[in-house]
Amino acid sequence: MASTKIINVLKDDKFEEILDLFKNASAQEVIFVLPKTSRAFKNEEHFIILQNEAVKLDKKISLLCSSPEINKLADKYKFDVLLAKNNDDKTLITTANRFDLKVSVNDEEEEIDKTLQEDNDDDNGYQAITVSKTNRGLEDIIKQEGTPIKIVTNKERPMTLAVKKKPASQPVDEIKNVWKEQSERIPIENIWAGINNNTKKSFKNFPKKLLIILGIISIVMFGTIIYISTGSAKIDITPSKQPLDLQLKISSSDKFSFVDVGLHKIPGQLFNIEKSATQTFSTTGEKEVAQKSRGKITVFNEYGTTPQVLIATTRFQTQDGLIFRTLKGVTVPGTKVENGKIIPGSISVEVIADKAGQSYNILASKFTIPAFNERGDAGRYEKIYGKSSEDMKGGIIGKAKIVTEYDFNTAKQVLSDQVVKDVENSLKTQTAGLKVINSSAIKLGKPDSTAKIDEAFDNLTMTISGFIKTVGFKEDDLMELVKQYIEKSENLTVVNENLTINYDNVVLDDGSNTLSFTLNIKGNGYTKIDSDKIKNDLSGKNEKEIKDYFKDISDIESVKVILSPFWVKKIPQNKGRTNLYINY
User: Fold this and answer.
1) Burial class of residue 53, CB neighbours in 10 A (0-12, 13-18, 19+)
2) Are 246 and 521 spatial neighbours (Cβ–Cβ below 8 Å)?
């Protein structure tokens, strides 16, 4: 076996072709001669794959290339990097000990942190001389023939320190002797004692008759104040009513931020709820059948980064030689690198046995693709394969239990009812405090069953999904729109409790997420009552004047006025003592 093989790589050569040449090479060391821009070695993933193959095959890899990027990746993955020597251009480097330098060559900066030691080997094209430490600048120490080198030294930057002083404490002695001595104070008890003595003396000298007169006057004045200030009025008004029978077209969306009476719009909140239910049911039918086993496998691609196309009916073979075929064509993704590891591409596909019978009801297995082996493509045969995580089922010849139409429809109905219930409960929880008027508009998906009608299975497992998309809104916003609309168009006042509202023509526009509906309004509207005007007009009026006032108001159906206490004969002048109630 040759010890070394040189492979010249062209600019547009594919990595898979180069990888095949490397694996098939009989030499212990392979040298790749690369152009400066190589398509095959542009991707770091290819270096990882090549490194893994080199370890596996126990081969050494060397690269000869003028591209710094490729050489950097080669060094990262432990490949030998070969550089062409040029004996005509020698560089003389003189250094003292070790320096951390920032060197700019042709305007491209790169950090250099190297320790040059004494080396007397002249074959490397460089000469390193160790000299004693001096006070000269770096420009005097480092020199290079040919290309000029700009040396940027890191200078020290001044720092500003802020110093805070602790505030000086105030002398305690300054806060002293504020109060006089206790002995110099006049006791407050002596002051009150003097006032009490003077008061008693003055009452003794006051005439008794005058005291009686003052007491009577005080009682009369107190009674007068109570008479005037305790009077109040209560006015109960029942306004005239008019029947209502209206239709109003309204829209609600999460794009509306306020109640718009003119455009009949109210704010809303969008809800998108999806639920699913799964259950296994026993089958009840029975008949003679010849049925193929089926199941799912996952196809893996570890061959390379290029996706692999597999046509429908592609054969997958078990270790026992049983053949299963794909039901549709698939494309298996190529490999990718995550966190430095190669991750194979994969895809799931349904397969069916090549023949009927129980022998194909196998446990979870590994599958190969015999077509790759038949055409001598050993790489793909080993690196592209399939695995099943579940058993293959359904293969039978003879009398067996089958899925009847009744079995299938029963399972579908049970799961549909469960999904509808789950969606309604979730919608009720999420829309707490909001009004939803199309909660019954739940859409059910097609049942996903492990067996179809007339297929031979002891049981079937079915899954059904359901979802609803709707807009919920605040009922207060809706009633505010109705109230403002009726007041503006009919000049009437409405009370929510006295209205009957029905929703019709409920439609959700999926594009704009806007819910539109027709509102049917029935009930009574009431004439508007100006409470402040009535209270102002009735201020100070007696019973007769009150009756005359309401006699001329046609918007009022009935009125009741109560004055209290019993001696009050007029409406108080103070409007705050008049309470007006409107009975709808």
Assistant:
1) middle
2) yes
Burial class (CB in 10 A: 0-12, 13-18, 19+), 525: buried
| Cβ-contact 293, 392 below 8 angstroms | yes
The whole-angstrom separation of Cα 419 and Cα 278 is 9
Question: What length is written for the chain?
Answer: 584
pTM above 0.70, yes or no: no
Three-state DSSP at 395 gives coil
3-state secondary structure 169-214: CCCHHHCCCCCCCHHHCCCHHHHHHHHHHHHHHHHHHCCHHHHHHH
- SS3 of 88-104: the string is CCCEEEEECCEEEEEEE
CB atoms within 10 A of CB 287: 11
DSSP-assigned states of every residue in 483-546? HHHHHHHH--EEEEEEEEEEEEEEEEETTTTEEEEEEEEEEEEE----HHHHHHHHTT-BHHHH
CA 59 – CA 2 distance, rounded (Å): 12
User: What is the distance between the alpha carbons of residues 85 and 346, in angstroms, rounded to a whole number?
Assistant: 47
pLDDT digits (tens, 9 = 90+) for 105-144: 333 333 333 333 333 344 433 333 333 333 333 333 334 4
Which structure tokens are listed for 484? 């403002």
